[in-house]
Amino acid sequence: MKKFVERDLISKTSSFFESSASFEKSGIVLLGIPMDYTASNIPGSRFAPKRIRELSYTLETYSPVFDAGVNKKFFDAGDIVLPWGNIQKSIGYIDEISSYLVEKGKKIVSIGGDHLITYPLVRQYLKKYKDLVVVDLDAHTDLRDEWSNEKNSHATVMRRVCDVIEKGSLYQFGIRSGSKEEFDFARKITHIYKYDVYEPLKKIIGSLKGKNIYLTIDIDVLDPAFAPGTGYLEAGGISSRELFDSVSLMLKELNVVGADIVEVCPPTDNSDRTSAIASKLIREIIIGLSDGNRAAGPFK
């Protein structure tokens, strides 16, 4: 990563828990992507990488789900330095850095930022995994072709993902908001499961075994009672318990090759509960992606 630091494309001011000092020896790389200028309601998710890192120090490093600790199982690369307001140039920087990491064989765990960051990440993963399957936990379909005359937006991100992955390779869970046109598109092109995550996931998880999975978690899949710190509050969501159980199940059963957590908005998260959930999720994902770790199952 040294070449990106020298070009001022990466900045590191803090670390998530105790990062390994060795990029070369780390199979997992944590990457902050503080881009939120396509947020169409409340901006502020650009502050999430910093706050989520800070809250990691309020957590235990040990996960009872995995019976393992997080320390030094990953390299925290820091945050991409993005040109404010320039969507295309920002996507280009994300493309360049994530391409380098994928080529190096790293599993990337990214902290957004708004949901648009998923598109360039998936695009680079496809260079290595042609049959990539994307699992999206979200309140919104995000399947519009345009939003406010813009093709690249957090409201169009899953449509852009569908443009590059194979038909039928997008699985969406927890969806409870979108236009009729988006739901019609989803029924034809994606696998969409409304309202719930864990139960439908458990029923179809066998069909995902053996595939390379990219996991994207929009924090608004949670009900606002659990996650008020996000740009679009959408009532009727799942609990934090269901989210942790679902992520644990995927990390146990599936070959997850990369993941991101997006749309955490610290300025509206006065209690820090949303950032705290995201921080714990990242801990679980890092441990679950580490060689030799397998989840013991859902929380009991």
Write a brief caption for the model.
By secondary structure, the protein is an alpha/beta fold. Helices cover 34% and strands 18% of the residues.
Please characterize this protein's 3D structure.
The protein has a single domain, classed as Ureohydrolase domain (Arginase, Chain A, 3-Layer(aba) Sandwich). The chain contains 9 helices and 11 strands. The protein has helices at 2-6, 48-56, 87-103, 118-128, 157-164, 180-189, 198-208, 240-253, 273-289, and strands at 10-11, 28-33, 62-63, 68-69, 75-80, 107-112, 133-137, 170-175, 191-194, 212-218, 255-262. The strands form 2 sheets. A 9-stranded mixed β-sheet has the order 1-5-2-6-11-10-7-8-9, with helices on both faces. Strands 3-4 form a two-stranded antiparallel sheet.
Jot down its keywords:
300 residues; alpha/beta; Arginase, Chain A; nine-stranded mixed β-sheet; two-stranded antiparallel ribbon; 9 helices; 11 strands
Layout of SSEs?
Blueprint: H1 2-6, E1 10-11, E2 28-33, H2 48-56, E3 62-63, E4 68-69, E5 75-80, H3 87-103, E6 107-112, H4 118-128, E7 133-137, H5 157-164, E8 170-175, H6 180-189, E9 191-194, H7 198-208, E10 212-218, H8 240-253, E11 255-262, H9 273-289
Parallel strand pairs: 2-5, 2-6, 6-11, 7-8, 7-10, 8-9, 10-11
Antiparallel strand pairs: 1-5, 3-4
